Amino acid sequence: MVASLVMYLAALIPLQNNSHIVNEPYYQLPRFWTNTGFCPYGEIKRESLKSSLFSESVQMNLMHLAALPTGALTHIRIHWLLELVKFIQYTQAGVPVYDFSDLDEFILNLNDLGLYPVIEFMTDLDGILISNSDIMNDIWEDFSYQVTKRYLNLLGAKNLVKWRFETWNEPDIHNYNILNFTVEGFIEYAMALRKGIKSAGRMSNKPLDLTLRGPAGLFKSKRNHPLCWSLIKSCNDQINDCPINVLTYHRKGQGLATEVLEASSKLLKNIYANYDNIKMLPVSNDEADPITGWSTPQDFYEDVRYATKLVYIVFLHWHAKLNYREFKYLETISHDNAFISYHPFEFAQRTLLAHFRMNNSQPVHSQFIQKPVYAALSMLSKLAPVAADIEVIALSSPNDVLWLLKTSSTGNKPLYVSWLLLPRENTEKLENFTLHRQLPFKSGSVETFAFVVELLEQKKTDPAYIWRTQARSRPFPDAMERAAMRYAQTPRLQASGLLLMPEFSLNISGLQLPWILLFRVCSNLSPVLKQPEAPTITKITIGEIFISWREAANTTNCLKTYEVWFQVNQTAEWSFISENWHLPYPSFQYAPINACVNGFFKVRAIDFFNRKSNFSDAIEYIEMSV
Ligand SMILES: *[C@@H]1O[C@H](CO)[C@@H](O)[C@H](O)[C@H]1NC(C)=O
Ligand SMILES: *[C@@H]1O[C@H](CO)[C@@H](O)[C@H](O)[C@H]1NC(C)=O
Ligand SMILES: *[C@@H]1O[C@H](CO)[C@@H](O)[C@H](O)[C@H]1NC(C)=O
Ligand SMILES: *[C@@H]1O[C@H](CO)[C@@H](O)[C@H](O)[C@H]1NC(C)=O
Ligand SMILES: *[C@@H]1O[C@H](CO)[C@@H](O)[C@H](O)[C@H]1NC(C)=O
Ligand SMILES: *[C@@H]1O[C@H](CO)[C@@H](O)[C@H](O)[C@H]1NC(C)=O
Ligand SMILES: *[C@@H]1O[C@H](CO)[C@@H](O)[C@H](O)[C@H]1NC(C)=O
C-alpha cells in the first residue's frame, strides 16, 4: 500500500532539468491503458468453458493480441477462468486437492505469449463450496493460496508480481453471483482471498506483497448493489482490515468517450464524499468502454471511430489524472474488447479484431482482420516515458479542435519524441491546415534526427470499408479481398525522412475524419535495432500462415517497419515477401496466390534511418496435410 502510494504521488511531480523538454511540465506517463478482457462464450460449466477457451478461434485471437508491439497490451482479464480447475478429493486432513492441468495449460500458453492474467476468483469449485457452505471461507483461503503458490512456483516471483488478483466480477449482478453471496459472505470471501494470496506471497524466497483488487463493481444504487457498496463501507470503517488494495469498478459511456470519464468522475466523487478514509486507495475502471454490451452491434466499432474513442478515453484519463482530485490515484483502465465477433457482426462488435468463420472452406477455420482500434493500441505503445498534459489546439473555426499528446525520452538517453494527434471526438468537419511546431532539440554536428509520420484514416486504413465496398459485406471474403483488408489494417506511412531543422510542419488537408496521427523523431545515437527473435508460424489453413515474432521491451521505438523474407529451400534465393507492406507490428499473414508456403522464414527490423537489424534466425515451415 505505502509503496504504491509513493509511486502514484511521484508520478505527478513534474520532471525538472530535462534537456529535451522546454517550457512545459512533463510527467512520468504510466502505461495505464494496456489492459483488455473478455468472457468466454458458452455455459458456465467446466467442460463448456474448457472447449471455449481452448478453441482454435480463442487461441488465435490471443495470438493476435500478443502480436501487438511489446507493451501495447499487458494484462487480460478473463471471466470464469478458474472454472478450469477441477476438484478431485479431500486429503485426510480435509484439504481439497485440485487438478490444475487445464488451467496450467492455458496459463503457460498465455505466459509464452507474454500476457499476464487478471485472475478473478469466480468459480463454484465443482460444487464443493455449496456442499460445504459452513467452511466456505476456509475453502476460499486455501484455494487462493493454492492458486497463487502454484504459479509462483511455476513462473517465478518476477512474473507473479505482474499478475493481478481480483474478486468476483460484478457480484451484484445475478447472472454472475451464482453462489448467492450475502453481504457478510461476500466480505468474508474477500478477506479469505486476501489472506490466502498474502500467505502464498510470503512463501517466496524474497517475500512478495501480492495484493487483491475488487470489487469489480457496477456500484449502482446501494439498495440494488449492496455487495460492492458494503465492501467499501467496511474498508472505510476499518481501513487496516480492508481486503482490497485497489478499488476496481466499471463505468462505461453511452457511446461517447467523454461520458466514460464523466460517469467515472461522478462515481468517484460520490464514493469519496461518503467514504473519506479510502480516498487514497488506488482505483481502476476495469471496464472503461464507450458503451455497454460488447455484442450489441455499433457502427462505430467497425472502423477508425472506435480507434479514436479508445485514444480519447486514454487522453481524457491522462488529463484527469493530472488535473482532477478524484482521479489522482487512478491506477489503470481496461478495455473489455478481447471478445470474438460473430456473423453477421464481423466488424461491428466491441472487439480488436474482425472475425470471419470460414464455413465454406475445407477445413472450416477462422480468419482474423486487425481493426483500426488494434492499430490504435499499437500507436499508444510507441509513446515515450514522459508526457505533457493534453494540449488543445484551436484552429480558426471554434469547432475545430485538435488534441495533442506530446511525449519524450528523458535525461541523457538518445532523443525520442512521440506525439499523438487527433481531432476532438465527433468532429465532422475540419478546416485545411498545416501544423507547425518547434521541436525540442538543437541540431548538432554529430547528432542527426529522423522522423516518421503514421496515420490511421477513415475509409483509408479501414478494412471494414474495404469489406463493405469491395467484398460487399460477404461472410466469406476470398483471398484477394482478405489481402486487401489486411493491406489496410496497419497505419499508413505518411511521411518519413531526415529532419534538418528542429521544426516540424505537416500539411493535414483533406483527410477523411476521423483520423489519428503519430509523429515520432529518433536520434541517430539510438542503437541499431536488435535482431528479432525467430518467428513463430501458425497455420491458418492450407497455403496460409500467420507469422509473428517477439520484440524485446523498449527497443523498438525507432522501428519504422519489419521485413519478412522467405526461401523455398536452403539453396533457393531469399525473397522479400512483405515488400509493399507497411509492417510496424511483429506479425504478417502470408497467403500467396498459387504458391506454396513451405520453406524458411526470417525477419528483420528497419529503423527511421533505414538501418537494418540483423536477420532473425530462420524458421522452417512444413505444411501438414489434413
Ligand atoms: C441462488 O439462488 C437462485 C435463485 O434464488 C437459486 O436458483 C440457486 O440455486 C441458488 N444457488 C445457490 C448456489 O445456492
Ligand atoms: C519500458 O518502458 C516503460 C515505460 O517507460 C517502463 O515502465 C518499463 O519498465 C520499461 N521496460 C523495460 C523492460 O525496460
Ligand atoms: C458458421 O457456422 C457456425 C456453426 O454452425 C455458425 O454459428 C456461424 O453463424 C456460421 N458462420 C457464417 C458466417 O455463416
Ligand atoms: C496542403 O495540401 C493540400 C492538398 O494536398 C493543398 O491543396 C494545399 O495547397 C496544401 N497547403 C499548403 C499550405 O501547402
Ligand atoms: C481542403 O483540401 C482538400 C484537398 O486538398 C479539398 O478537397 C477541400 O476542398 C479543402 N477544404 C477546404 C474547406 O478548403
Ligand atoms: C530449391 O528451389 C529451387 C527454386 O524453386 C529449385 O529450382 C531447386 O530445385 C530446389 N532445390 C532442391 C534441392 O529442392
Ligand atoms: C549482427 O550480427 C553480427 C555478426 O553476428 C554481430 O557482430 C553484430 O553485433 C550484430 N549486430 C547487432 C546490432 O546485433
From TrEMBL:
<dbReference type="InterPro" id="IPR049165">
    <property type="entry name" value="GH39_as"/>
</dbReference>
<keyword id="KW-0732">Signal</keyword>
<dbReference type="InterPro" id="IPR013783">
    <property type="entry name" value="Ig-like_fold"/>
</dbReference>
<feature type="signal peptide">
    <location>
        <begin position="1"/>
        <end position="19"/>
    </location>
</feature>
<dbReference type="Pfam" id="PF21200">
    <property type="entry name" value="Glyco_hydro_39_C"/>
</dbReference>
<feature type="domain" description="Glycosyl hydrolases family 39 N-terminal catalytic">
    <location>
        <begin position="27"/>
        <end position="495"/>
    </location>
</feature>
<dbReference type="InterPro" id="IPR049166">
    <property type="entry name" value="GH39_cat"/>
</dbReference>
<keyword id="KW-0378">Hydrolase</keyword>
<keyword id="KW-0326">Glycosidase</keyword>
<dbReference type="InterPro" id="IPR051923">
    <property type="entry name" value="Glycosyl_Hydrolase_39"/>
</dbReference>
<dbReference type="InterPro" id="IPR049167">
    <property type="entry name" value="GH39_C"/>
</dbReference>
<dbReference type="Pfam" id="PF01229">
    <property type="entry name" value="Glyco_hydro_39"/>
</dbReference>
<protein>
    <submittedName>
        <fullName>Alpha-L-iduronidase isoform X1</fullName>
    </submittedName>
</protein>
<dbReference type="InterPro" id="IPR017853">
    <property type="entry name" value="GH"/>
</dbReference>
<comment type="similarity">
    <text>Belongs to the glycosyl hydrolase 39 family.</text>
</comment>
<feature type="domain" description="Alpha-L-iduronidase C-terminal">
    <location>
        <begin position="538"/>
        <end position="623"/>
    </location>
</feature>
